[in-house]
Design brief:
Elements: E1 3-8, H1 16-30, E2 34-39, H2 54-57, H3 66-75, E3 78-84, H4 92-99, H5 102-110, E4 122-129, H6 140-152, E5 155-163, H7 176-188
Parallel strand pairs: 1-2, 1-3, 3-4, 4-5
Helix pairs in contact: 1-7
Bound molecules: flavin mononucleotide.
Length: 192
């Protein structure tokens, strides 16, 4: 059974990115994928400290909850990342998880090791919510970060839902078109 991993980056439960991610996960389930959601705020994930420990074996030497996340990222066939926009970027909790993927960078570019068996690529989808669009490239920074994350993970960036105008918790519940779009994205992810 193919696996779809949801990575939930907001510290706010039942907020806008949470609702959209859950819709996408329901869609993935409807396509018969085996789904799992990682709630990043519940994990103890230290930021990368640039110690270079991963350069030797491609494995991070920090012993925290990130160790259980690495294998899930490798096993996944689909990865859906959801985050609110914080100061034009992804949440700090999610950024710590992403920075710890420097171990994959070391694996690939220093040790010339594959990320997955047979060079398999996963499919990656990005969901971001924000309050207001001031025309200054609200999502640009976050999209670049996620593209870079997917790139190091041999994961093809297949699409996104980037939605402004969502400030209060649950505001997204009134946006039926976004809920449907998220469900469809999850359902189609592995075919994209
Ligand atoms: C610390 C913090 C920083 C934020 N920065 C921005 C921002 O730069 N631009 C923006 O439009 N909204 C910003 N917001 C609003 C959130 O992105 C918005 O409410 C989002 O829908 C929250 O998603 P959630 O409900 O999934 O947590 C910020 C909110 C917080 C708490």
């Amino acid at each position: 059974m193919k696996k779809v991993l949801g990575i939930f980056g907001s510290p706010r439960p039942h907020g806008n990115s949470d609702v959209l991610l859950d819709q996408a996960m329901k869609g993935a389930e409807a396509s018969n994928a085996d789904v799992e959601k990682i709630i990043v705020r519940d994990l103890q994930i230290a930021p990368c400290n640039s110690c270079g420990g991963c350069f030797e074996k491609g494995v991070c030497v920090i012993g925290d909850d990130m160790q259980a996340v690495y294998s899930r990222l490798v096993d996944a066939h689909g990865i859906i990342v959801a985050t609110p926009i914080y100061f034009m970027g992804v949440s700090a909790q999610l950024k710590a998880l992403i920075d710890r993927c420097q171990a994959f960078w070391a694996r690939k570019y220093i040790l010339n090791l594959p990320i997955r068996e047979n060079g398999r690529f996963a499919k990656g989808f990005f969901i971001a919510t924000a309050a207001r669009d001031d025309g200054e490239g609200l999502f640009t920074g976050a999209v670049k970060t996620i593209k870079s994350f997917f790139h190091v993970l041999d994961t093809k960036y297949v699409g996104n839902i980037l939605s402004a105008g969502l400030e209060e918790k649950g505001a997204v519940q009134k946006r039926q078109e976004l809920l449907q779009q998220a469900f469809d994205a999850g359902r189609q992810l592995l075919e994209l």
